[in-house]
Design a protein that fits this description.
10 helices; alpha/beta
Length: 271
């Protein structure tokens, strides 16, 4: 298996390419990795944002696995932080919800994504949005400064998920909340599949077991943890065959594992 730094480099390279691809090509992939998911025939993970206030088609790269802003309780005047903000899709949705008296910060580690997000920001003429380059395990955000954190199909790409949730806790104000849509797994994913780096960049082999994912959140110190939405994620067999071609035929399988998209909401204690 690649080291954490190697995995980050793989993700950066892949998402640099994705930043320049159209929505239909990304939406037909595992979290946007066309190398993972073939020729544009399938929409595997992404949800449809069309019709939501603040939705900007140019900022939607089809990379999500849920719509966390639907469940985040964002109110006018809040400060919102989007982790792995990409071209700004969830940022601009949140910006409409917080209004001109609020602030939305988008953090992404990929330069090409930040550049695309800034381009969209200037086209739209939105002033209460701030895009910052940085990593989720070391956020360029002050402690106790954010009302709501959102993230969409990104934390599965972070090698150290405990560090990621610790950072979310740090930046949230007391009583603040996060709402994250992410990929998790039920059952045991075969070790051979977890070793395939392209499947990591495709939000598959980096997926944590669902019970472990929720345990990390609980151990970090969050309270009132709920899962307002779940949906099954099914990767067609022919895509697994293609992307796991480096493995022996008998290992090109999810085994008994089942992928899920979950949207999780939890609060930082108010005390």
């Amino acid at each position: 298996m690649a080291t954490p730094e190697q995995l980050k480099d793989i993700v950066k390279d892949k998402y640099t390419v994705i930043a320049e691809q159209p929505l239909d090509e990304n939406a037909a992939s595992c979290c946007g990795t066309t190398a993972c998911c073939g020729d544009g025939t399938y929409t595997i993970m992404s949800d449809d944002y069309t019709g939501r206030e603040g939705y900007i088609a140019e900022a939607d790269l089809g990379l999500g696995c849920g719509i966390p802003t639907d469940h985040a309780g964002i109110q006018p005047g809040m400060t919102v932080l989007d982790l792995g903000s990409g071209a700004g899709n969830d940022v601009f949705i949140a910006a409409r919800e917080v209004g001109s008296d609020g602030l939305v910060i988008g953090v992404d580690m990929t330069e090409a994504m930040i550049a695309k997000a800034e381009e969209n920001k200037h086209k739209l003429g939105i002033s209460h949005v701030d895009f910052r380059r940085g990593e989720i395990e070391a956020l360029p955000v002050d402690s106790n400064s954010v009302d709501v954190v959102v993230s969409n199909c990104v934390l599965n790409l972070v090698p150290d998920k405990a560090a990621a949730f610790a950072e979310i806790l740090r930046v949230l104000k007391p009583g603040g909340s996060f709402t994250v849509s992410d990929i998790v797994v039920e059952g045991e994913m075969p070790d051979a599949l977890r070793s395939v780096a392209t499947m990591y960049a495709g939000c598959v082999s980096g997926a944590e077991r669902q019970e472990r994912y929720l345990e990390i959140i609980d151990n970090t110190g969050f309270v009132d943890v709920t899962v307002p939405k779940r949906k099954d994620i099914v990767i067609p067999a022919e895509i697994l065959e293609k992307e796991l071609a480096e493995l022996p035929p008998e290992q090109r399988t999810m085994g008994g594992a089942r992928l899920l998209s979950v949207t999780v909401r939890a609060f930082k204690p108010a005390g």
